[in-house]
Amino acid sequence: MEINQYIEKAKHGDQSAYTFLLDHYWNEVYAFMLKRTENETDAEDITIETFSKAFDKISVYNPEFQFNTWLIAIAKNVHIDLIRKRKKALFLDITDEDDQLAYDVADSAPSAEDKLITEQNLSSLLQCIKQLKPHYQEVIQLRFFQELSYQEISDTLGEPLSNVKVKLLRAKKLLAEIIESKR
């Protein structure tokens, strides 16, 4: 099937078309942003936001232009927005509470829930999940362990619904790759 056919399917809400487009263009957008930002976390965040915005606005995509060019243009704008937010944040007052949060470091030791899951023969899955980046671990945990809806996850994280959907898509794909590599 041609890319334009997937784009048309995505315009009509076909989830598999979204997944195909995400998988097909993820590395290109991510590599472009990694080169620009020289920071893996920023590149990944910008790429997630790019796909989120693209999927929200796919109905206005003009097929006269290459889809990857459109995605890169969105990524550039997201990057500019990130830079502006950071410049603005440089002038914010930091409270003692905010300062203390910077010193709170996540404990990587297994929790009581981790031990219970291990006892229930889910330790292998949990170890795979722990190999994901923390923001992917979080969406997997909220969706599949706390059984929150996409909207509830969006509200909990304070992120747009489309970002949550893209993060979950990406997290599931990466988790599947980790599980497959252990076989």
UniProtKB/TrEMBL annotation:
Residues 22-88 form the RNA polymerase sigma-70 region domain. The keyword Transcription regulation applies. The keyword Transcription regulation applies. Keywords: Sigma factor, Transcription, Transcription regulation. InterPro entries: RNA_pol_sigma-70-like, RNA_pol_sigma-70_dom, RNA_pol_sigma70_r2, RNA_pol_sigma70_r4_t2, RNA_pol_sigma_r2, RNA_pol_sigma_r3/r4-like, WH-like_DNA-bd_sf. Pfam families: Sigma70_r2 (PF04542), Sigma70_r4_2 (PF08281). SUPFAM superfamilies: Sigma2 domain of RNA polymerase sigma factors, Sigma3 and sigma4 domains of RNA polymerase sigma factors. Residues 124-175 form the RNA polymerase sigma factor 70 region 4 type domain. GO terms for biological process: DNA-templated transcription initiation. One of its GO terms (molecular function) is DNA binding. Belongs to the sigma-70 factor family. ECF subfamily. NCBIfam families: sigma70-ECF (TIGR02937). This is RNA polymerase sigma factor.
